Amino acid sequence: ILHLKNKTERNRQELIDALSKVKYEMTQRKNMSLNLVEKKINTLGKNETVSNTFEVLKFFFPHLRKVGRIYPDVIIGKEKTGVSFALGISTVSRGNQSYLKQTLNSVVSRMTLSEEKDSVVIVSVADRNEDYLKSVVDMIKKRFKRQLKSGSLEVISIPAFFYPNMLHVKKSAEDSGKLASWHIKQVLDFCFLMLYAQPKAMYYLQLEDDIIAKKMYFTKITDFVHNITSKNWFYIEFSILGFIGKLFKSEDLTDFVRFFLMFYKDKPIDLLLGDIFQVKMCNPGETPEKCAERNKQIRIRYKPSLFQHVGIQSSFPGREQYSKVRF
């Protein structure tokens, strides 16, 4: 600027332009710190680096091989990385009933500020209904503005092109056929969320959008993980219900996702989690008793449960569920 100051009138104009540009950039940065960063994949700049963690999906889904890069359709947050824990919450519309605000309130409010700083909570909207996405975003902007601003909370949406054509799946007018399709989509929803979270943190905790976290749950988790003497654990269960409260090492997530995608049409994801243990950890010819003993050593269960399931209206339309555990 001092150099330009001594130039001709033409350079004086360049100085004015430069100052205007600096002011504009300062304003933009200030706005970014106050507002949310919202991106759509088609607006990413050419020089922006995008993680290739989603490339594994192209092996299983040929229709994705025509896609340049796979990434969430929408990202709201600061895309925080380099933390110890990523907490994933997949959500879909349940009609007139929603438990997400209650879930987020318990998950976020029961962290200390230092724990919040070393973690990121990712809400993944796995629903094509744009009105539902907007309602989730509006609710989070209003109720969790500080967490969005700090980067400890993000919202993403899964692009519609990610899902394969479900027509090759056994179809039925009966509820059993619809339930099968619902389970299939749920497996895919979780896999996408896991792949997005993997580069962000050392550990990944899977939650759902209709749970309540116990007081000091995060402190109990971090203390428990840091005090485990064996590093050879498979995953840790902080809840016995379904796929809730399962903690994985992020470096293992790709292996889990690969297995889930091999059998995503065959079983719900919580049953596949048991199957992967049998495949990877039980030796041929080994007695069930011996395998069960190893199971106890590397599939670690924390007691009592740190998460309570509260949702009655299932994400499967018309279905109610009452599974609960005692804290």
Automatic annotation (TrEMBL):
* GO biological process terms held by the UniProt record: protein N-linked glycosylation
The protein's matches in InterPro entries, at most eight in alphabetical order, are given as: Glyco_transf_54, MGAT4
Alphabetically, the GO molecular function entries are: acetylglucosaminyltransferase activity
Q: Which Pfam families match?
A: MGAT4_cons
Where is each MGAT4 conserved region domain found? Answer: 49-324
What is any one of the record's Gene Ontology cellular component terms? endoplasmic reticulum-Golgi intermediate compartment
The molecule here is called CLGN protein
Q: Which organism is it from?
A: Crocuta crocuta (Spotted hyena)
State the organism's lineage.
Answer: Eukaryota, Metazoa, Chordata, Craniata, Vertebrata
